[in-house]
Design goal:
The protein is built from eleven helices and 15 strands. Strand 3, helix 5 and strand 4 form a beta-alpha-beta unit. The longest helix is centred in the last third of the chain and has 27 residues. Bound molecules: D-malate (MLT).
């Protein structure tokens, strides 16, 4: 009989967002009269249509595929040069990143999980708490952890709590860790890191020979020019960091799928014989073996995000979602709730009213207001007592959520 990867059995029941979807489905089935009233502010899934420039470029890509002269079969596993170059020109022009250090993919969720293929066993791994659950679950699947304790914390991971006391900025670990996951602007707390804070992480990584896995999927939502958008704005990061970016949230690609990894050739890891090996070489090998590239029409569409018209359209989308975040923040603050994030990120992180825990607030919002939020504890035990409201929605829905929140909490 085929044996299984028993690490999967260590995982908690279900991945957070499908679990939320399951509970919402159960609620709407039990309350069909309320089903149409449900507003989803749980998973951070975009709601607005693709920018017209993106749609046009995707159509053109499909037309090319339908014509013998312009048809394309397998593309480069690392992505087409036109997109890699557009990314460098538009996102990394002054940061010394080369086009061949960009690897196009079908999204950051896959990339942040797949990256573990190139790291060995026995690494000490630090994650923030609360955290995007993919970082934890993929390490569990890879066998990098022991079992979870009753609070859901896995043996072998170094948890870095982020709470109101430390302004949701994790302390630099006292012990030596090999891999550090950072996500800024942060999912789920919507908070950001200053240049000094990121510089402290890079200093730590260089001193301890660690690698920073920097998830910048939400960088487009930063409006404050003082806040770094890339870890590579920090001196020395090109020796110790890998960055993950996505077209999901800025270009509205959650249903289209396109992201990229930025892996400078100067980042190395240690082989069993003690020699240093560029991680770029390993990732290139991994992608060439396990991935055949994002589709051509999708890469054409992604490149259109950087066209002059595409930039205007993306800016309008960001403005729309951040306008939503502002309304949600203001509504919660007016109710006397403690509110974090939502200023340079599309997530608003709210402390539950006294006496209500995270899943209690989820149930209350669903049962009494028909609004889906994400319970903070679903992102880790330090998220207990909070809930996350996603600003990805229509303006009408967000205004309605503000009204219902008021009726519920006031
Ligand atoms: C979230 O809601 O945290 C995100 O949508 C998850 C994701 O991007 O995979």
């Amino acid at each position: 009989m085929a044996t299984i990867n028993s690490n999967f059995l260590k995982l908690k029941a279900g991945y957070l967002f499908p679990e939320i979807a399951r509970r919402v489905k159960a609620y709407t089935e039990a309350n069909p009269d309320k089903a149409d009233r449900v507003i989803r502010c749980g998973i951070g899934d975009v709601t607005e249509p693709l920018p017209p420039s993106v749609v046009k470029a995707m159509h053109e890509g499909v037309d090319e595929m339908g014509c013998r002269d312009t048809f394309k079969g397998y593309g480069p596993e690392q992505g087409y040069a036109f997109l890699r170059e557009a990314i460098v020109e538009n996102q990394y022009a002054e940061l010394g990143i080369a086009a061949d250090e960009i690897f196009i993919s079908d999204g950051s969720k896959c990339d942040t999980g797949n990256i573990l293929d190139i790291f060995g066993a026995g690494n000490t791994i630090a994650i923030t708490d609360p955290v995007y659950p993919v970082y934890v679950d993929t390490n569990v699947m890879a066998g990098n952890t022991g079992d979870a304790d009753p609070s859901g914390a896995y043996a072998g991971l170094v948890y870095l709590p982020c709470n109101a006391e430390n302004d949701f900025s994790p302390a630099i670990p006292e012990e030596k860790v090999d891999l550090i996951y950072l996500c800024y602007p942060n999912n789920p707390t919507g908070t950001t890191a200053t240049r000094e804070q990121l510089a402290a992480w890079v200093k730590y990584a260089k001193e301890n020979d660690s690698v920073i896995l920097f998830d910048a999927a939400y960088e487009a939502f930063i409006s404050d020019p003082a806040i770094p958008r890339s870890i590579f704005e920090i001196e020395g990061a090109k020796d110790c960091a890998i960055e993950f970016r996505s077209f999901s949230k800025n270009g509205g690609f959650t249903g289209v799928r396109c992201g990229y990894v930025v892996l400078p050739k100067s980042v190395t890891g240690k082989a069993a014989d003690g020699s240093r090996v560029p991680l770029h070489q390993l990732w290139n090998r991994r992608q060439s073996t396990k991935f055949n590239g994002a589709s051509y029409p999708v890469q054409k569409a992604a490149a259109a995000v950087f066209s002059p018209q595409g930039k205007k359209e993306v800016a309008a989308l960001i403005e729309h979602y951040m306008g939503n975040a502002k309304l949600l923040r203001e509504a919660a603050i007016a109710l006397g709730l403690k509110v974090y994030g939502g200023e340079n990120a599309p997530y608003v992180w709210i402390a539950c009213p006294d006496g209500v825990d995270s899943w209690g607030m989820f149930d209350k919002m669903l049962n009494e207001a028909q609004v889906v939020v994400t319970p903070g504890s679903g992102f880790g035990s330090a998220g207990e007592g909070y809930f996350r409201v996603s600003a990805f929605n229509s303006r009408d829905n967000v205004e309605e959520v503000c009204r219902r929140l008021k009726a519920l909490v006031a």
